[in-house]
Amino acid sequence: MSAEQSGTQPILLEQDVVRARQLARTLAQGCGMSLINLTKLVTAVSELARNAVVYGGGGHMDWQVVEKDHRKGLRLTFRDEGPGIPDIKLAMTDGWTSGGGLGLGLTGAKRLVDEFELDTAPGAGTRVTILRWA
Amino acid sequence: MAALQPFTLTAIRTHQASLVAEWLAGLDASGATRNLKADDLKRQTEEFLDLLHAGLQNGDASNLNAGAWDEVRLFLEKLSHSRALLGQDSQQTATFIFSLKGPLFALLQREYSEQPAQLANQLLQVSELLDALGLHTIRTFQKSREAVIKRQQEELLELSTPVVKLWDGVLALPMIGTLDSQRTQVVMESLLQRIVDTGSEIAIIDITGVPTVDTLVAQHLLKTVTAIRLMGADCIISGVRPQIAQTIVHLGLDLQGVVTKANLADALKLALHRLGLSVAKAG
């Protein structure tokens, strides 16, 4: 994996959500992703980046362009040092929210991508890794 | 901090002409004088030295906030402001002050050549004074820039939410860009107000220009729709493109009960139909 094909972007403020989205859009276009897959990925990025800002108190987005069997994809990791999620099962329930949202961000993001991995513990921050093939 | 020696003040006064000449030469060499008229610059340097001298005579160099420095501060604020308008950056503006150091230090060195201890002391004083004045120009410069940015942001917010009347009783709101809480608030307010003002029965919110519809945007839209209904009007959301539709389904958003259309034309057609109007070919 060459150096240009991975990187990190800080997500500290509400405005950074838009910047993370724009970066994901540019990267996905570079992978030759179709408009529908691109829109799904960018929407998932929007949800996860906003979660990192609102619930995690800010974090980072690591990105990596991956390739397998001549197919390109984008792997993104959202990590924050926030309070973590005490009950993963509850958090992955449609309509449940600890804030004032619709409670569909995390579960919706999972349905919008090909691979989804949630790594969290109370007090240990949250890491969400997603992957979308072009 | 001890004040500057009267001897230093006298020295500045006596050698003012040569100070100005050297200062101007230094400014010229640093390239900070681009776009500036030579006459203006000369007048500004002379005026600044006069004011500096007056300030030093009446006040303490360690406290620039004191009344004795009012005129110097005012001068620098005006200077920063005019430089900002001329398109100079903060560095060029601050260089105006900082480049006085060279000639002034050289002068002090000549005057105090017999008293090295005094020289060191006076150099430190002058240096600290000029640093403080330079920082003041940067601060002022930054403030005027920030004021410009803030004004533009507010203008953008207003500009980005035009409510247009499509027909008697039909309003449309073309949304463009990112929908955050603040913008939604502005949008909702202006739309609801226009509904009252025009007595409209149908409002169309067009999201063709919104690139990403996530749960937050959806939540804002649903709140706006609810508010419109509470006012006794109907709401249609148009501009739902195929990729947005698929994304909404995957997110699990429930837009049932909200009338949506693929484009603004369809939405207008539906609105006219509801008002009992139809568009026919002339003749």
UniProtKB/TrEMBL annotation, chain A:
Keyword annotations from UniProtKB, A to Z: Kinase, Serine/threonine-protein kinase, Transferase
Alphabetical list of CDD domains matching this protein: HATPase_RsbT-like
Keyword Kinase assigned: yes
Pfam family, any one: HATPase_c
Domain Histidine kinase/HSP90-like ATPase: 36-134
Any one Gene Ontology molecular-function term assigned to this protein's record: protein serine/threonine kinase activity
InterPro entries in the record: Anti-sigma-factor_SerPK, HATPase_C_sf, HATPase_dom
SUPFAM superfamilies: ATPase domain of HSP90 chaperone/DNA topoisomerase II/histidine kinase
Official protein name in the record: Serine/threonine-protein kinase RsbT
Native source organism of the sequence: Pseudomonas putida
